[in-house]
Design brief:
alpha/beta; 6-stranded parallel β-sheet
Length: 176
């Protein structure tokens, strides 16, 4: 199945990682691909230290890609990593590692921003839609309608109240 968690509320990635933990508890192998994120998030640190059957691919850089600044080195590096992963690394990893769940964290936003070509994303995600063998989760504040229409489940996470509005930004352990 292809699941999508999107929206402006907090909890999209948390839901994806919670599902990954549930899958690991069932003995599944899991692949996690982080788009537009770097190595220092708590989830990456946890999975790298664990002996669990998880493969992690960090496709972002330390520096954030500014919207519209696609001619920058940072944007180019993010674009190249994402394209290479979706086109070459993912198919090979699906064949050799045989995961039952793939988490595409922030792929929705990366696609929305133009960091990843939407046609490449749809081609990569088609294999998960309606599948009982291998499942995938896509997260992102914004997810293009082509991905949502391909999905078997779409959940919108909306903000009701958020501590960001009180000036608390990126709290270690809660946000990264």
């Amino acid at each position: 199945m292809l699941l999508v968690f999107y929206g402006k509320g907090k909890g999209k990635s948390t839901a994806a990682y919670g599902t990954a933990v549930r899958a690991l508890g069932r003995g599944w192998k899991v692949v996690i691909a982080l788009f537009m994120k770097s190595w220092d998030s708590g989830e990456v640190l946890f999975f790298r230290r664990s002996k669990l059957p998880v493969r992690i691919f960090v496709l972002g850089t330390e520096e954030f890609v500014q919207p519209g600044a696609y001619d920058s080195i940072v944007a180019s590096e993010n674009m190249a990593r994402a394209y290479a992963f979706l086109t070459y690394v993912l198919p090979r990893t699906l064949r050799s590692f045989k995961p039952k769940l793939v988490v595409f964290d922030e792929l929705g936003l990366a696609t929305h921003m133009g960091i990843v070509d939407e046609r490449v994303v749809v081609r990569a995600l088609r294999r998960f839609s309606g599948s009982r063998e291998v499942h995938a989760i896509v997260t992102g504040r914004y997810v293009p309608s082509t991905i949502k229409s391909l999905a078997d489940l779409v959940s919108e996470v909306r903000e009701v109240k958020h501590y960001f509005r009180k000036g608390f930004v990126n709290l270690e352990g809660l946000d990264y």
